[in-house]
From TrEMBL:
GO molecular function: DNA helicase activity; hydrolase activity
Domain Helicase C-terminal: 505-672
Protein name: ATP-dependent DNA helicase RecG
Species of the source: Antrihabitans spumae
Pfam families, per database record: DEAD (PF00270), Helicase_C (PF00271), RecG_dom3_C (PF19833)
Domain Helicase ATP-binding intervals: 307-482
Keywords assigned by UniProt, alphabetized: ATP-binding, DNA damage, DNA recombination, DNA repair, DNA-binding, Helicase, Hydrolase, Isomerase, Nucleotide-binding
Its job: Plays a critical role in recombination and DNA repair. Helps process Holliday junction intermediates to mature products by catalyzing branch migration. Has replication fork regression activity, unwinds stalled or blocked replication forks to make a HJ that can be resolved. Has a DNA unwinding activity characteristic of a DNA helicase with 3'-5' polarity.
PROSITE patterns: HELICASE_ATP_BIND_1 (PS51192), HELICASE_CTER (PS51194)
Gene this protein is translated from: recG
UniProt family annotation: Belongs to the helicase family. RecG subfamily.
Amino acid sequence: MADLGDRLDHLLGKKAADTLVEAFDITTVEDLLRHYPNRYASQGQPLTEGDPPDGAHITIVGDIVKSDLVKMRNRPGHMLKVVLAADKQQVDATFFNGMKVRHNIKVGRRAMFSGTVKYFRDKWGLNHPGYLILPEDRESDDIVAMDRVRGGGTLAGMARSTQDPGQGVDMSIFDRPLLPVYPATSKLESWDIMRCVRQVLDQLDPVDDPLPQGVRGEHSLIGLDEALRAIHFPDTQDEIDRAKDRLRFDEATALQLVLAQRRNENSIRNAPPCPPRSDGIAAAFEKLLPFELTDGQNEVAQEISSDLSNAHPMSRLLQGEVGSGKTIVALRAMLQVVDAGFQCALLAPTEVLAAQHYRSLRALLGPLGNAGELDAGEVATKIVALTGSMSTSAKRTALLAAVTGEAGIVIGTHALIQHNVEFFDLGMVVIDEQHRFGVEQRDALRAKAKQGTSPHLLVMTATPIPRTIAMTTLGDLETSTLRELPRGRSPIVTSVVPANAKPAWVDRAWARINEEVAAGRQAYIVCSRIGDEKVSASDKEPQTHSVIDMFEELRHGALAGTEVGLLHGRLPAEEKDGVMRAFTDGDIDVLVCTTVVEVGVDVPNATVMVIIDADRFGVSQLHQLRGRIGRGGHKGLCILVSEANPVGPAFARLQAVSATNDGFELAVLDLRQRREGDVLGAAQSGTDTTLRLLSLLDDLEIISAAQDFARSVIADDPGLANHPGLAAMMKSALDGERLEYLSKT
């Protein structure tokens, strides 16, 4: 007999086990049993006196009464036209690889056909069905065994999965009402996996359940042993549903146990307490602000201030709509830390954004950010920037300011993470657009605090995160959300322009930009690619508008009367900074750019954005981009230009973006259109999603229940020493790389 931890080579033999490892990295019994079917094949719809509906899947048994090889009219080759006498009907079937199957499908043979009903000229038939030739010496239709498999498609594959040397083929598998169909590869077919699962389940001892009986009863969950058997070989749809409910809870619990452990570990670390001061830079900054903060900003600022006062590290996510004022809140928090005698590091994903943060923070602080300069305030700190493209002397100056403690706030890109960057006493790390950074990079920056302490951590994102996503991927972080726009900010109006059907509307977009520029305002034009991409002879030229071509076309054409600038990621750093500075200062009227302006860029005078080939961008990305406009006293207009089919799904997605400014609603839409498991960090960790059954969007109740259970367990048993079953479940439900990823995030 076997248990969940046993190696498969001991149970299935080395050849089968090696194939499972190569295809899916499946090594143990539990790995195999957690490779769930993605659908189930049924016996199909039996024939009745009436005709089956078009598209119905049917499985029929009958006698072959006709089998003719016919030359195809429109292409080389032959097809086999077959008539099967089944029940009281004669069923037509067509095989397009006639020469390959004619040796099996002969008149007088008895066969099982399985396929999808197709109608042609009021007569139905089966095109290229799966088939299985049955023994000739049959006395009844009850199929028990046969010597070898003759057939093709899924039916033959399933029959081969039962093949046992010396005993022939056990056809009783087709007596089952539901047959599992697994994620498979060209080298490992679904029926091969089914055979392995059957063999393992036949040898498996009853599985001990790691979930307490009370938890199972509270949430109406079946036992783990029953669930693992039912998910693979169910008799009814109800069995599948109950098995999935239990296994979804396991997945949610595994994730929440990791996050609860991380939350517990963070709570026992030491961090520098930074209580607020009434006579410090933070207080002086509040008096200098020329505008009033929103109620939401004040509430979130108070939450962060309270966290910073503790001797354990703050771990907080600050999320908010585009333009909701996260930077002001983060700056107030950093000044509180500086007032306590510590330093802050602000990590930005791009040099453009790092430079923007540096300029905006200097502008916001004024004399409070000019420590060491002639115009410095009575209380002040020094702000320095550190990026990879800076000159050697500028880097040396910034590094010296960081290591001596002269700089209270250090702003930078990945350059901050380099081993030669040291801080005098790092008290807080602020990470902007956290999804842009890998876990190793975030870890490296947090490790720059003094030995034995951990810096406070504030993670900012302008990409709204639905509650279930936050609970599942950031469950160890406290979450603060800014939903309201700052006072005086107008909502952005978005329009979708079908470029092919309405070319005059595109011309009107350029005219609108000219009107805005004439009124003293500015505009963005965003393209999806640069235009200097190398295209091999075998590749097709991208059918999109490049930023370089659009820049040349517009400055000599529709926008010839304006000052047009060009910005993209491959420009030298000094040139990028110069262009962005010129646009910020108003010397450039229209900026033709790529998505380098997606986050953080703040030019209040920009009121119009035209996004070319808008269907090439994701929903959340479009929402981010349009957030660059309407940041001053004038309304913003975003125009989404697309050559997509106006009745197709891509155009419908753009219309959904234009219909709402609610980033949370759009985030849900975006996640539904892509694999939600990627949210767990697949792109950053290099692994595929490990979500098998759990839906991060739809299973809020399950995730909440699992979070409560996991936190109660970890509170009493942080290392799961008294819960070995839960520890094993946590490791099996998440692959090793993902477990390591989550533990470090």
